[in-house]
Amino acid sequence: MQTGVSYFSGRTLRHVRADLADMVDHHCTYVVHCLTETDLVFYRGTMRDIVQATHEAGLQAWLDPWGVAGIFSGETFSRFPLDHPEAWQVLSDGRRVPAACPNHPATRQFLRQWAEAAAATGGDVLFWDEPHFYHGLWRGDLSGAWACRCDACQDAFRERFGYVLPDRFGDEVRAFREASLLDLLSELCRLGHAKGLVNALCLIPTGLRQMGFPQVEERFARLLRSAGQPEEALASLLHVGIDDWQAAAAIPDLDIFGCDPYWYIFGTDPERFTRAYGQRAAEAARRHGRDLQLWVQAFSVPEGREEELRVGLAVAAEVGATHVAAWSYEGTASMSQIRCARPEVVWRVLGEAFRELRAARHG
Fold this sequence. Notes:
With 363 residues, this protein is of the alpha/beta class. 45% of the residues lie in helices and 14% in strands. The chain has one domain: Glycosidases (TIM Barrel). It contains 14 helices and 10 strands. The strands form 2 sheets. Strands 1-2-3-6-7-8-9-10 form an 8-stranded parallel barrel, surrounded by 6 helices. It has a two-stranded antiparallel sheet with strand order 4-5. The longest helix has 24 residues. It is globular.
């Protein structure tokens, strides 16, 4: 059982070394370092030093394109769309939004450069974190407008399907968006292997109603109604990333497949939510010979509910996870917007649970 946390708050090496030692004390075996666009511009040498320090601490170093190009996860900003307005995504209502289109050649080139920079740090794993098209809900946009209808997407859709990209969200648009992300990930994973790195992919939980959580979908529907938006906007609002997990796990150069069933933000039960999505990810991982990674949410954890983390991690172990991880280090204490109510309690619980998991798995 490999146990890890994400880390993004430190770039001063003496503080990073202290944090790495703290992670070891909390029974971590790997660190998911966020290699942001800021790091690409200003901290490349620093990130090499941090990866070296990670290895010296006895930890594996993963690199995460956190927020890069507006395509991968991230509570951080992307510079690339500012420098490349030609690569912006175009919404179904004609608006252009400052997130790079996964189908645009300039975006593809930039992400290849990111992968090469990640490899140059000396890291071990490329962690492809929640790949997605622009998602209005994350920006407070409940219009239901979806991306992307830029020229590159129009051309790619016509080449794939033989007709014009529809302006209404439906099965063809859903399939096209997922195929676009899978094609991008296939290219990036191939490059990762060529550079000697392992590839890991994490997907956002999707198909809430089909997975037995209709109440979550209904909450989104009520949110739309309260904002005066049509019910038909729900389909595009709920489509985030890739819903075909079998296809994602089948990416040829992928090594580790998983998801992040964050029950706190979805407002669900930790045991049921983690088991449902953990089993779904496990089935895809086993079928295609991948290791399985499952995440638990160590941000925005309400006071008094910290012990639920033990439940989620125990279920992850039961469904066969080879890797578990928490977002993020020290209960996300450094980020006031989403820090846990009691980050020190969250961090203590995680350390205890990691120790117990590793002891149980290794006898």
